[in-house]
Amino acid sequence: MDSSNHWYGHAHLLAEYCGLDREHPPRINGVIQHGWTFVHGFGYGHRPPHGFAKYVWGDVNRRRGQAIGWRDYVTIGAPFLYLDRMRPQTGTDMGAREGTIWFPFHGTVDYEAVDGDHDRLIAQIKDVEGDGPVTMCLYYVEYEQEEVRRRYEDAGFRVITLGKRGTFYQGGTSNFLERQLVELRRHERVASNRLSTAIFYGIAAGLDPAVYGDPMDIPGIKQGFDGTHLLEKTFPELHGEHLDLDLARQVADEELGRDFLMTPEELGLVLGWGEEMELLR
User: Fold this and answer.
1) Neighbours of 164 (CB within 10 A)
2) Number of domains in the chain
3) Which of 19, 117, 154, 216 lies at a 20 to 30 A Cα distance from 194?
4) In this predicted structure, what is the pLDDT of residue 111?
5) Which of 7-21, 82-96, 241-255 shows the lowest mean pLDDT across its residues?
6) Where in 2-139 does DSSP place strands (E)?
7) What sign results for the dihedral spanned by CA atoms 117, 222, 108, 77?
8) Residue 20 belongs to what domain range?
9) Is the four-CA dihedral 80, 85, 86, 91 of positive or negative sign?
10) Are 20 and 10 in contact (CB under 8 A)?
């Protein structure tokens, strides 16, 4: 199994959905898309080998990949949507939402930290969100940088992180997405300075989305993967301080692949878990 299938607990929650051992998910003969991208579903340097399935969320990823000659695509829907299905909300949950959860643009590893004006971003957030409570959800890269974390804490924001994605099966937070879903459901709005995975998850969880503020960047990012200005032109309906929620949901459903969600039996077979699921009968 490609170790990235364990990032954010994707393999774990899909195994649970299929009725298998969550703590020890079976091997997957392919690579699962682990985050939203505006390209073919996979990040720089993460092209799955020929002959191995490329499990993507929405059909838009398959179309983008096939446009550049990639094959072996399988569209399954985002693992986050399966989690949302497994953890239905209660009436009490839906009535307790308050404030905004903010996901600032982040680096991916220690040597890919973002470059931007955090103080300016704080001022923009306070101007838009007003007196309502704000939770800053930092990626672990920035959360572990005390000078960054302290700026948001000193601004009066609640500052949290959801855990780490791990490396080669070690050090990952297998309930990362569960923690994210719980936090999203505590809030009314979800916002970021970049159109990102968290925005689409927030929309799927019923929050009002917003994308505004200094977009920041990663110095030296690989060519073709910096969507700073491309995203604003490609998804204008998802940029702004207050958006059309119905339109945002339509886009999110397409990008997350809601129409491609499968039953546990279907998904288990597609992921190559037929023998394991046969033992459940």
Assistant:
1) 18
2) 2
3) 154
4) 46
5) 82-96
6) 30-32, 53-56, 73-75, 100-102, 134-137
7) positive
8) 3-78+257-278
9) positive
10) no
